[in-house]
Amino acid sequence: MTKYEDEDWKDLPEDVKAAAKKLGYTKKMWNGDKEPDCCDEYWDDLDEDQRQAATVLGYDKESWDKGGILDKCCVIL
Q1: Contact criterion met (CB below 8 Å) for 4 and 12
Q2: CB under 8 Å, gap of 24 or more: what pairs does 21-24 form?
Q3: Radius of gyration of the chain from Cα atoms?
Q4: Digits of tens for pLDDT over the chain (77 positions)?
Q5: CB-based burial of residue 47 (10 Å sphere; 0-12 exposed, 13-18 middle, 19+ buried)?
Q6: pTM
Q7: Which of 3, 49, 53, 71 would be a feasible disulfide site paired with 19, CB 3.0-4.6 Å?
Q8: DSSP states of the chain
Q9: Alpha-carbon distance 61 to 68, whole Å?
Q10: Do the beta carbons of residue 20 and residue 31 sit within 8 Å?
C-alpha cells in the first residue's frame, strides 16, 4: 500500500496526478480502484518513465512486484 492509495484523485498533489497519468491512470480509474495494464507488468518490464512515475507514487521494485501479478497467481499444491 502506498501513501496515496486511499486518496481521491481531487486530493492528490499535482506531481502525483502527473505520475499516475504516466502509468495510464485516469481520474475515473483512480477513484474506482481500477488499475491500468502496466500494473500487471514486472518492475523490470516497465520503461524508465513508468518506473519514475511509480517511484513518485511510493513504489520501488520490491513493492511493485509484490503488488503485481505475483500476488494474483494461484498456488497449486
Answers
A1: yes
A2: 22/49, 22/50, 22/52, 22/53, 23/50, 23/53, 23/54, 23/57
A3: 13
A4: 567 888 999 999 999 999 999 999 999 999 998 999 999 999 999 999 999 999 999 999 999 998 754 443 333 43
A5: exposed
A6: 0.80
A7: 53
A8: --TTTTS-GGGS-HHHHHHHHHTT--HHHHHTT---GGGGS-GGGS-HHHHHHHHHTT--HHHHHHHTHHHHSPPP-
A9: 11
A10: no
Looking up cell 502509468 gives: 23
Cell reading at 27: 481520474
The grid coordinates listed for 66 are 509484490
